[in-house]
Write a structure and sequence with these properties.
By secondary structure, this protein is mainly alpha-helical. The chain is built from four helices and four strands; from the N terminus they run E-E-E-E-H-H-H-H. The chain has a two-stranded parallel ribbon. A two-stranded antiparallel sheet has the order 2-3. The structure holds zinc ion.
Length: 159
């Protein structure tokens, strides 16, 4: 196995943990990554090659942004509610609440912005640009072959 999904976030060659490995995150770009420790290539299946793969389903749903906004709203409510209940409105607690509140407002804003981008088609457009980048990468047969050699399912037309 050469992908970090099957090793639980560790380099398949040397076993050192991949920094900031969050298995829930998804993105586009080359799934071929290089281990900072041993320099060996490995696959990270959180990245998709749009040339021959579909976009992540969650990226095309407005509900994803709505869920993010609701999560931000929930954190805001808990933060404000907790502070109201404990009546710690001065000093440290106040600063902490202000920090969490600003952070949750940013999450709410991002969620709404994301949902609007899905609705207006702006997001689909930016994904199409990434598809063009992917086609560009795959036009290099050596790259396509390396991807296939590492165990990625590359359609024959690129090899
Ligand atoms: Zn390594």
């Amino acid at each position: 196995m050469t992908d970090i999904q099957s090793t639980g976030g560790k380099c398949p060659s040397c076993g050192s943990p991949i920094s900031n490995y969050n298995k829930a995150s998804t993105d586009y770009g080359t799934p071929i990554r290089t281990c900072k420790r041993c320099g060996q290539p490995y696959l990270d299946r959180r990245y998709r090659e749009l040339a021959f793969e579909e976009p992540w389903a969650s990226d095309l749903k407005a509900s994803t942004g709505v869920k993010t906004a609701l999560m931000g709203l929930f954190i805001l409510a808990v933060s404000v509610g907790f502070n109201l209940l404990t009546l710690h409105f001065r000093g440290y607690y106040y600063k902490k609440m202000a920090f969490v509140s600003i952070l949750s407002l940013l999450v709410i804003g991002y969620g709404i912005f994301d949902a609007i981008r899905v609705k207006t088609g702006a997001k689909a457009k930016s994904i199409e640009k990434k598809r063009a980048d992917s086609e560009q990468r795959l036009s290099d047969r050596a790259y396509a072959q390396q991807l296939a050699d590492l165990g990625y399912n590359v359609p024959d037309k690129y090899l």
